[in-house]
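hey so i finally got around to running the thing on that chain from the lab meeting. sorry it took forever, my laptop kept dying and i had to restart like 3 times. anyway pasting the input first so we r on the same page abt which one it is
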Amino acid sequence: MTGLLYISTLQQRLMKGLFVVVCLVVLWSNSTNTALCSNGRENMFAQPKHFPQTPFLQPWQRIDSLQTLLQRSFGTERLALLHALTDEYAIQRPQYGLPYAQEAIRLAKASENYPALAQSYYDKGLILWEQGNNDAAQAAYFSGLKIAEEIHDSLLIAKAWFGLASVAHNRNRQEEALQYSRQALDIVVRYEDYALQARILNLMGVSHRERKRLDSALLFFHQSLAVHERHLITQRVYMPLFNIGYTLYFRHQYADASEYIFKALRAALQQGNARVTAESYLTVADIACAEKNFAIALEFCEKGRQLADSLGLKPTLAEAYFAFTEIYRAQGKFREALHYNELYHAVNDSLISVQSSATISELQTLYNAEKREKQIAAELNAKEIVQQRLTLLLVTVAIVAGLLGYLFYTKQRTAEELAASNTAILAQQRIMEEQAQEIELVNSVYHEKNRELEAERERSENLLHSIFPVSIAQRLKSGEQTIAEKFDSVTVLFADIVNFTQLSAHMPPESVVAGLNKIFMRLDELTTQYGLEKIKTIGDAYMIAGGLPVRSQDHCVRVARFALRLLEVVNEEALRSRNRMLKLRIGIHTGEVVAGVIGTTKISYDLWGDTVNTASRMESHGEPGRIHVSEAVYQQLQHQFIFQERGIIDIKGKGMMPTWFLIAERS
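ok and heres what got predicted. didnt touch it at all, straight out
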């Protein structure tokens, strides 16, 4: 359902059809079952005992207490209270929380408290995200991330990444959400922030569920719940509980799903999360509809609608109208279904308008703030110019006064004193001229040495950059002794000139070297053109890699394009050997490698790992004039490039493997 990480979006439900029956309902394992209807079926929808009867009372008391303390607080204490209030509002009433986040940002800027400023931007992003304003939320998270990186605060960096993952999820960019989540999870596990760890695991589960990977989703939800239980974290425990139940519904395990849904409902009531409470009611209604128990479905749907309407939760209200539409549609009451469908579209359209208005308002606020800052800077600059002019005037007056005093004094001196003074001045002038000549001579020698050193430095840098990638060369220059890195995803290519040994057997050594140099220089140009890294040449073989030392997402695509272009240019007129067409045998594989600098005298940057060996085998088992690739390359590029299946062949040292030939890029 919309508005939460653990609920499907309205758009996804619409994609299933305007009138598709969705959702499940629940059976509380500890409640007493009673008869539901005259045929003796057990009541799956009985509310468990010990449910809070006055929802949201205790959470609002917490907010009231925090606001009372806020009225008489200052400095860092006030900032801490503003953070706490923003978090409470994010759970209960996100529509009221933005002013507190804005005030926290203002106070943190005024006191130059950069950790608090990064946290405040995260709080602001959370409130905006809960309101459904993804654009403004993303801007706030990026502001917090920039500050956190500048002050090297790992936990605040993790929070910003988690926020960006939440925005990516809402925009249905699930792989991007998982990437941000993994980065955040690596940090929080090291720093033992268990509450944030539980939320990240829950978000990763939701992203997997949106990609229809239900087993993976349940695994992450249970991990999130285990963190809550192991460390006695009650806040937001309803998130994994709800998502486990909701995922079990998709698997038609209604009895198991009901237990988790009611646990989530009770936790949401206790913690005052109105949105989850209302949406849990709607989930119960969906299940009752699926069970053809329309009276119960309408009852719980009305509960959810009333709560959402009374608290101004428009996304949930739209969901309630959609549920009404489905219930009446299932009963064949099409007039009522049409009525609620119109209400659903009206609320949904207003949501889009509200988000656009909120985004415009946010941009206007930022524009006004920037304009005011420029005005203040201009005023300060004007004051500084006036101060500089006043200082210059005072200095000028002092110089003039000094000159007048000097003239008055010199008039009192006798002619002999003036003559003696002139003689001394001339002698001093000669000494200064001699010293100036010596200094000029020394300077010329110094500048000449500097030019020689600069030329030598440039030669050394050019040589270093010709051997190593730029980033590796910079690390070596900075004095780093051991350079070794693991890359999870790299594409490696080997290219070998077919029958070059036989071709060169009847050629002078100078011609062999010149021919190879001409070919490899052309390959070097292509490597630079496609943003790849030349690793080394081995005889008449050429090895390149994509995705290192600078990591990238499209390295496999760029290596494939490089390989196709390679087959074209190898037979250019200038590269032919004695007017004979050259043929290359090319092999490609993608996977993880270890890269680093080895050696002490003839040092080099090289790669190791099974990926390198497999790429080499692809080349050696390939065919002249063709590009032989592994299954890993095919799986990544099959929708963007055209392949010819070669079948399963015996690869030396690897066994039987399915391989393909890369033919061309799809137009």
